[in-house]
Design brief:
With about 220 residues, the chain is of the alpha+beta class. About 25% of the residues lie in helices and about 40% in strands. It has one domain (about 1-225): 4'-phosphopantetheinyl transferase domain (Ribosomal Protein L22, Chain A, Alpha-Beta Complex), CATH 3.90.470. Strand 5 and strand 6 (about 95-100) form a beta hairpin.
Length: about 220
């Protein structure tokens, strides 16, 4: 057994004076090192589902341990009869789960090298302008994943995946848009954060996390040892 370079990111929410506050808890996951990649991913996914059940139980006072997930037409999970909304994102050994009294969408990506081919094929003209305006490769990669997670979070908010279409703007030449809108879906507020754990390795790891919500929100990130 050893500690993999992996994190589980867990978002809870509360409402203060009518304004939603999203808290993001970051902590490590212990996994066996000799398992196949698919098994490791399954264990992280299971851990995420378990924590979703526990957090919903803590927030509502109900027992979700034996309740099965239901799934929307595009695979978005939910619990029938539960007023709280949640959204889950998986990337390798990382999970992000966002909870809200309102509809919510979340996406997380590890910010390695972002493919220019993907940007040219998927991004809108405004998003490509934002992407290619970066002066350095590291910043360009962050911008690429910021746009990508924003698109994913917005589509998850609306209960669909990339099949819902990617032809909407999340950025312009000045930066990421505070509100995303498209012809298909209502507007939503966008919150994007760069996450970095300095003690993970010599240069640290970086993720990009985007959350979309219909309501105005504050984001607080808490790291747990």
């Amino acid at each position: 057994m050893f500690l993999l370079n992996s994190l589980l990111i867990f978002c809870g929410t509360e409402v203060l004076n009518g304004k939603m506050k999203i808290k993001v808890y970051v902590f490590s996951v212990d996994l066996p090192g000799d398992l196949p990649a698919g098994r490791k991913a399954g264990m992280v996914s299971d851990a995420g589902h378990k924590l979703v059940r526990e957090q919903l139980g803590s927030m509502t006072g109900e027992d979700f341990n034996c309740r099965p997930f239901s799934f929307g037409p595009s695979g978005k999970p939910f619990f029938s009869g539960c007023e709280l909304q949640f959204s889950i994102s998986h990337k390798g050994n990382t999970v992000a789960a966002a909870f809200s009294p309102y509809e919510v969408g979340v996406d997380i990506e590890e910010a390695g090298e972002f493919s220019r081919r993907v940007a040219d094929r998927v991004f809108t003209a405004c998003e490509r302008q934002y992407f290619y305006a970066a002066r350095h490769a590291d910043e360009r990669n962050i911008r690429g994943y910021s746009v990508w997670t924003a698109k994913e979070a917005y589509l998850k908010l609306n209960g669909t995946g990339i099949a819902g279409g990617l032809g909407f703007d999340t950025a312009n030449e000045q930066g990421l848009l505070p509100v995303i809108a498209s012809e298909k879906y209502p507007p939503a507020r966008l919150y994007t954060r760069r996450l970095k754990r300095e003690d993970a390795c010599e240069e640290g790891w970086t993720w990009v996390l985007s959350v979309c919500s219909r309501e105005e929100a504050e984001i607080e990130i808490l790291y747990i040892n």
